[in-house]
Amino acid sequence: MLQVKDVVKRFKSGGEVIAAVDGVTFEVPDATFASIVGSSGSGKSTLLSLMGALDAPTSGTIHVGGVDVTALPPGKQVAYRRSRIGFVFQQYNLVPNLTALENVMLPLEFARVPTAERKDRALTLLRQVGLSGAKLGRLPGKLSGGEQQRVSIARALANRPEVIFADEPTGNLDSRNGKRIVTLLRDLVVAEKTTVVVVTHDRSVANRADITFSMRDGKIVHTKNRGV
Amino acid sequence: MSVAARGIKNTFRNKTRGGAVILVLAIVVGLTLSMLVANEAVASRLATVRAELDTTITAMPAFSQNAEEMGYLSAEQLERVRALDHVAGAEGIAQGMLELPKSEEDQAGGPKVMLGAPNGAKGTTNLESAVDGSKMGAPEGMKFPITVTGTDGNLTSRGVPLSVVDGRALEAADERGAIVSDQVAEKNGLAVGDTFTAFEETFTVVGIATTGEYDDVGVVMTAATLMDLGELDGYNNIVVEVDDVAALPAVGDALGELLGDTVEIRTESQSALEATQGLESVDRITWLGFLICLLCAAVIVFFTLALTVRERRKEVGVLKAIGATSRGVVAQFGIEAVTLVLAATVLGLGVTMLTSNLIADVLVTTNTPAAEDTTGAMTGGGPGKVTRVMGPGGEEPQSAADLIGEVTAGLGWNTLALGVASALGIALLGSVVPAWLIARVRPAEVLRGE
User: Fold this and answer.
1) pLDDT in tens, B136-169
2) Is any Cβ of chain A less than 8 angstroms from the Cβ of B15?
3) What is the 3-state secondary structure (H, E, C) of chain A?
4) What confidence category does residue A22 fall into, taking pLDDT thresholds of 50, 70 and 90?
5) Which residues in B lie closer than 8 A to residue A69 (C-beta atoms)?
6) pLDDT in tens, A172-189
7) What is the predicted ipTM?
8) B447/A110 Cβ within 8 A
């Protein structure tokens, strides 16, 4: 269960204090595909970074699997990011001089998984997202956007996370590839019982979620539950 | 792929830039090592020259043909000299000449020579000089006197410690005991325990010492004996041992001040002093050059890494977001720096081999007085002034350049080890700030920039 309670994140900008996230509270049950929608500047990406322990909230708590991630010391936050969650970025953010396979093996290396097991698991994950053969040895620059995003998803899945946070995962893809990525993420929820939280502008993506939170000016203004 | 492998791979991510940085760094690292190699070669030569350096100064009454005008140095003056700073020891030396009793032929005006200071002791002996006059182009039949030295410190007439090869050293109680040179002993068939006459007294040979070509040992007796028998009013000179080569000029000046302007201060080490001063300058220059080059290399590494971190800030953020620790990312960039510097060091060794000797040569040449500046005629050496004198045996003193000889800079294992350690130091020094920048990168900024 992902529980967000009274979370506030304020920034100072030009001497003015802005509440990017302003008292947000919601819950996402396990094995759920959730989406957060809203216009630019609504606070959805900031909320995602707070849930991913990439940033600390000004106040409020975030529990993942019963653990308050906001109370974790920095070292434990790294461990949390490494083992309990996975990130998928809009611009894929693959390491450019590592091959597709090496990119997927990277989080496994950080988790000190034995070398032989790293390769096996990375190959399995890449096959699972539909990549195999020569493409695995290619650098990201030699892969299409859709392929890079699939590598990015495989990388996010490497350490078998409980939750995957995806920030605009289809933002740089054409509609066909976008649909494939969303299907992939949905399949994870079913097959791996993984919770997926997607931040998106795209209504078609949001509509495929089990639950959708709409944000405006840092607040959740609407919640649409499609039968969780 | 390990952190190390990733670090090495990242070094050559941009081959053109990586290659250019390594090339520039190789030149700087090469010069750094050259300075180090030159410094070690110069330091080694400096130690050798210093070890060879004569650290004695001789104080003697200013020369005059008139013995009464020359005067002597007193026991009290000797004590005051011994109390000066940097004086490790001082001995008073009485000098004189012994010659065979004059034959009728000599008295009639046959060829003869009588050397020595005008105020020295003069006496007769039954010993024959071992000096071969023909070697000096002297007329046949010319008779040479024998040097006689009165010393309590077992020194030659030139103030050099005696090298006794048979018998024993001279003791204060040896009123009628003497050491003779091996040449005199051989010429006169003397052995330890034999006797000879000098100043119309009988002396027993207590020891035999080696001597130079022109026999500067001759006969050595106690200072008190020679002053008594030779009717001297004091020492003919005081030989001062200085504790530090660098203190020679200061001690010379102090002696001049202490003994007054009727005393001449002499050292045989002026050229050597100039040589050591020249080498000391090169030693300092090369060490400073080493530090400057090291700093330049560190600055190059710093800017390269700082630029790399700045360019790859997003990548650093992503690595942290997917579970890398700051320490892990810093280690990866540190390995990049080490790879960069080690690759440059390998190339730089070639630069070192090409330039180290050249640098040492140029610096030594430009910092050492030329031969014509340090050799040549003996200076007048006025009273109380430090002057150079002829070398032992009367040979022309060596110039500073001659003393230094050739400084050969060689790349040894120690230098290589120090070079590699320096290279790693460069990498470490140049990585500190970039590492701090890496630690400050917050992964949230990556998402915010999306």
Assistant:
1) 677 776 778 899 999 988 888 777 888 999 999 9
2) no
3) CEEEEEEEEEEEECCEEEEEEEEEEEEECCCCEEEEEECCCCCHHHHHHHHCCCCCCCEEEEEECCEEHHHCCHHHHHHHHHHCEEEECCCCCCCCCCCHHHHHHHHHHHCCCCHHHHHHHHHHHHHHCCCCHHHHHCCHHHCCHHHHHHHHHHHHHCCCCCEEEEECCCCCCCHHHHHHHHHHHHHHHHHHCCEEEEEECCHHHHCCCCEEEEEECCEEEEEEECCC
4) very high
5) none
6) 778 887 888 888 889 889
7) 0.88
8) no
